[in-house]
Amino acid sequence: MYRKLMYSTLALTLVLAACGGSDPADTTGVGTETTAAAPDTTAPAETTAAGETTAAPAETTAAATETTVNAACSTDSDLLFEPGKLTIATGEPVFPPWMMDDDPTNGEGFESAVAYALAEELGFAAEDVSWVRTGFDQAIAPGEKDYDFNMQQYSITEERDEVVDFSIPYYNVQKSVIALSDTPAAQATTFAELAEANLGATIGTTDLDYIEQVIGDTDTAVYNTQADTVAALNAGQIDATVVGLPTAHFLTAVELENAVISGLLPEQGDSGEGMGLLFTEGNEYVNCVNPALEALHESGAIDAMAEEWLEQGGDIPLIEG
After folding, report:
1. What is 86-172+274-309's CATH topology?
2. Rounded Cα gap, residues 57 and 194, in angstroms
């Protein structure tokens, strides 16, 4: 019943920054000028010798840098919360299609599948992945954490990035509105119509930010967890809420008896920046995780997992501002 909730996903665009080193051409130029002042009979030999001498330190430096990076990213790296283990935090509870049966350890659901694929890319066996649970808002607070990174659909925003660090995006999700079928919110086509409904969302989420700042609702009900928000919707305490489209497909199919996806929401500001893994501010292990995520994107592995767990067809209208 929980398997494979599909929808049309936005294409994810990654901007990869290339690391630059010193320019060997400058050194060669100096060597050439020195050689030019020497007698003609020695110029070829000196030029060749200078070229070889100049190249050697550069190669040695590159090799040393690579060795240092590999050591920092090894499975027993001191950068890890517990060397030899990859410690990942997620929510309490967790929901399909992101994770199945409230069990992050089974490798089922999009985020659980990505987590284990990422662990393998980093060199960890499945049994060396350790999970801890946190509240959504709790993880965004500054301070040291008892895990390497947190994975629970965190949208990358400038405000959050001031107190925590993020990986490159592993997925880009579009927001949507789910509403009780017998309320006007189910037929809403504009922000103004939505703002007239009784809306609610989970504290600390960009879903709540979207309702308050973009839709313009000034009386949004705020709940501590997504489970509380869903319970309020089921009880008729609110008419509608905003969630990512994959979550909306699951909730309307399984958790909510009388609700529909009333529409998609246009991207506004941070809402389209993608979801990233959340790290403690200054945690250098993000520099190990980003190349591993890039490799999973380039191989098509993440696209395949999104197709299996998240994407679902269907013509859903866009709610205009």
Report:
1. D-Maltodextrin-Binding Protein; domain 2 (3.40.190)
2. 65
Closest CA to 173 of 320, 321, 302, 3: 302
Q: Which of the listed CATH numbers 3.40.190.10, 3.90.1150.10, 3.40.50.450, 1.20.1250.20 matches domain 175-271?
A: 3.40.190.10
Cα–Cα distance measured from residue 290 to residue 19, given in angstroms and rounded to the nearest whole number:
13
Angle at 73 between CA 68 and CA 78, to 5 degrees: 90
Q: Which amino acid is at 317?
A: P
Alpha carbons 212 and 218: distance in angstroms, whole number: 6
Beta carbons of 156 and 212 less than 8 angstroms apart:
no
Amino acid at 204: G
Q: pLDDT digits over 209-238, tens only?
A: 999 999 999 899 999 999 999 999 999 999
Q: Are 238 and 177 in contact (CB under 8 A)?
A: no
What's the pLDDT at 142? 86
Q: How distant, in Å, are the alpha carbons of 41, 92, 131 from that of 135?
A: 76, 6, 14
pTM (predicted TM-score): 0.67
